[in-house]
Amino acid sequence: MKLLHAADIHLDSPLVGLAMYDEAPVDELRSATRRAFDALVDLAIEERVGLLLLAGDIFDGDWPHWGTGRHFMLGMLRLQDAGIPVVAVAGNHDAESKLTKSLSAPGNFTMLSSRRPDTWISEELGIAVHGQSYATPAVVEDLAAGYPAPLPGMVNVGLLHTSADGRPGHERYAPCTVRTLIDRGYGYFALGHVHTREVLSQAPPIVFCGVLQGRGLREAGAKGATLIDIEEGVLHHEHRVLDVVRWAVVTVDAAGAEDLGEVCSRASVAIRDAARDADDRLLAAQLRIVGASAAHGALVLDPQRTRQEMILAAAEGAGDQVWLQGTAIDTVPESAVAGGGNDAVGELMSELEEILASDGAIEDFGRMLAPLAGTLTPAALEQFNPTDPAVIRDVLGEVRRTLPSALTQTVNR
Questions:
Q1: Where would you tag: which of 68, 126, 289, 318 has the fewest CB atoms within 10 A of its CB?
Q2: Structure letter (DSSP) for residue 136
């Protein structure tokens, strides 16, 4: 018998900021969560799974329109026609109190209760699924501690939307320890909320399957669901890739490159390789150019030209299979004079490094800029607060990156 475990579908999740990219394949990006969900349904049917488990955040919040719920329910109907039941819990994004719209669900779909730990039982499959949905978006108590004891003679599965013992970038919701989950005595724990696939335990398997479809560079890499095969009471699990758009940060080593053209050639090759790894999916990529290079000045002094050159390099490498979301330039000058020698430029850069290394110097900058902050509106301060140490470091970091080439270029004219 096979089970399929998915989570964090975030159906019709909005992709904020696409409007600023006039060349972005907007329709393909916005439909990605739906197409990945359709691929999940296809996989369940193709593998003839006995049960689909959904560990929260099916939706990204209240439906933007009725089509979101309709598309999900049509998928449930396809599974019902194939004889596949679906058991789900709601997470922080689709908590019971957050959704104002609803559609009638087919009989094969069960959402476990948010009021108390709930159990779904199939005598035919010999499976008991234990779980609890979120009633509100911010659940801070350990839900798993209240899950019931396993039912004898059945495969017991836990379904939980949780941060476990804490994960960077994820709110600490329904926190618990791996020990708590193991002590439940279940054969498998299907987890959601953390968007990177992670196996917390092999015996028993306790698995974050990760987000179904990446929605930005923070969710780079292959995404999908976990297929579970049960043979004579032993559970085996494997990741199945289901994303239709692959997000990636593609690093280009510019070390030793003589000019912008050589960097572009290297970028084209790096994009070609990344597109190959994406297996014909649309590749949404950011280029990160690194290394000590004579091309540093050309890269940083005209960022608009650099971006357009990199877009062309990406097209040369992978054609319309790639969309270049951005270019991050992290190169340094190859020349010791430009980078920090004993001349005036070098001395200036050394002083800048000392400032960046000193919290006190950064605080002094903030105090000097306080009068400027006083002239800005609250809305402007939310976007750019010149007294914020993080903002000051970002600005000085940009100066450190671009100033040497700007000064030496001026001197050499």
A1: 126
A2: S
Q: How many CB atoms lie within 10 A of CB 8?
A: 28
* More confident site: 48 or 350: 48
Measured CA to CA in angstroms, residue 242 lies from 140, 160, 192, 213, 225 at distances of 31, 21, 16, 7, 7
Q: What is the pLDDT of residues 342-360, one digit of tens each?
A: 555 566 667 777 777 778 8
Tokens at residue 149, please?
Answer: 């004891």
What domains can be seen in the chain, in order of their start residue? 2-243 (3.60.21.10), 246-334 (no CATH), 337-413 (no CATH)
Q: Take residue 210 and report the two structure tokens written for it.
A: 């990760």
- Nearest residue to 94 (alpha-carbon basis) of 9, 24, 212: 9
Contact 329, 300 (CB under 8 A): yes
Give the whole-angstrom CA distance, residue 92 versus residue 60.
Answer: 9
Token duo for residue 164: 């476990």
Q: What is the pLDDT of residues 220-253, one digit of tens each?
A: 999 999 999 998 778 899 999 999 999 999 999 9
Cis status of the peptide bond prior to 25, with omega within 30 of 0 = no
- What six digits make up the tokens of 364? 């002094």
Tell me which H or E stretch contains 354.
helix 344-356
Query: Helix 344-356 crosses helix 389-412 at what angle (to 10 degrees)?
Result: 170
The contacts found for 350-358 with CB under 8 angstroms, 24 or more apart, are 352/396, 352/399, 352/400, 352/403, 353/400, 355/396, 356/393, 356/396, 356/397, 356/400
Rounded to whole angstroms, the Cα distance separating 10 from 36 reads 10
- Of 408, 239, 267, 246, nearest in space to 329 by CA: 267
Q: What separation in angstroms does the CA of 81 have from each of 45, 48, 135? A: 10, 12, 30
